[in-house]
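Good day; I would like, with your permission, to put a structural problem before you. A protein sequence and the structure tokens that stand for its backbone fold form the material at issue. I would ask you to consider whether the tokens describe a fold that such a sequence might reasonably adopt. I set the record out below, with my sincere thanks for your time.
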Amino acid sequence: MPVAAGGNIRSIGDAKKIFDSGADKIVLNTPIFKMPELVKELVNLFGSQSVVGSIDYKKENDKTFVFTNKGGENTNLSVKEAVELAESLGVGEIYLNSIDKDGTGMGYDIETIKETKKYSKVPIIAAGGVGKFEHFLEGIEKTNADAFATANLFYFMADSLAKARKFLKERGVELAEWEYGFKTNKIGLFLTARVSSSRLPKKMLLEINGKPALWYLIQRMKNVQKANLKIVCTTTEKGDDEIEKIAKDNGFICFRGDVEDVLLRYLKAASFYGVEFFVNVDGDDLFCSTEYVDKIIESYQSSKADYIYVSGLPLGGSPIGVKVEALREVCNLKMEKDTQGWGKYFKESGLFNCLKLEAEENLRRENYRMTLDYEEDYEFFKRVILSLGLENLSLEKIIKFLDENPKIVEINQKVNEKYWERFNREHKKFKLKEG
């Protein structure tokens, strides 16, 4: 369940403290109306999915206005004007709160919620006025709001969350199943991609037959059948706006998180979208096996292992599966900020249940190199893609083609030694906190 926090956010530093404390989102009210440039900066830094715009409104002299400063200052904007302003600044959600209804226990402001949903371009969280479980049902049945919030009902009634869920489920409302506070019905596919690269600049954007390299990976991963959510995990750096555009243009979700700490980026994405297990495919690995993504998910569903990997596939052909509960433990224990080469935390710490899958014999080509890290790799991918075409890019067909064309295999073989030297030098050691 994503955690949101707000109040007195007046700088990037204020927001960072909240995120560093473990929040998944920040909630902004006053800055929307008095510090719009700050809101834009926060969206650019942390991603729109992490910024919620709070719109507090009430009637005054028979007109409805939006207020700020804890409801004490009239902005003289209508709800529609305020929502459109917040959306123009890039917020990812609107928390719509009726000050008049708040604390009354008389139910939601149904008409305003319905009207706001007609023009809003982002999800609406309706708030203010819940006094009994029936008010949730009324909101669901009479408006198209994306979520419904309450405070007093949960504060002052014992086991009220469980009772509210039971009440709604008995009346036919579909709710996600939960365990230990997290949704348990979400399996994710996380693609890791960013523009910044020291060895091959902007490698994710390098074109092959008029399309960026990342495009080919996304198209191939559309064949994965068993993942509920397919997410490109990139950073909050401005340059990765291009990564976000490619992801969204091709039907994938984009999550933007920590620049250096890729594990924290995964954890934030998993928390935000309610994922309990995900399969990771590195953006460099354009030919990663889609078949083994599904096999890893199947293996998790039967084993509940913390970490699942495949032995025997070409370098760049192997996806990795991670249980979010185990990832959270690693993030709590690790001492490094830069977590590239992160498999070591699971495989070498002795703390986790790791499961190894053996690749099928016809796919066992550990000497083949299929990862985009050097200019020679780029030439390799171009030759294969231009020869086979997108429709023939299953790992099995790629390996068959390479078996028949050994000269293409040789294109990037010489970079393997320096690749592994660098990898072992930079990523071999790790430290975990004691206890």
Residues 179-184 have pLDDT under 50 and may be disordered. Residues 187-364 form a domain with the Spore Coat Polysaccharide Biosynthesis Protein SpsA; Chain A fold (CATH 3.90.550.10). The longest strand covers residues 51-60.
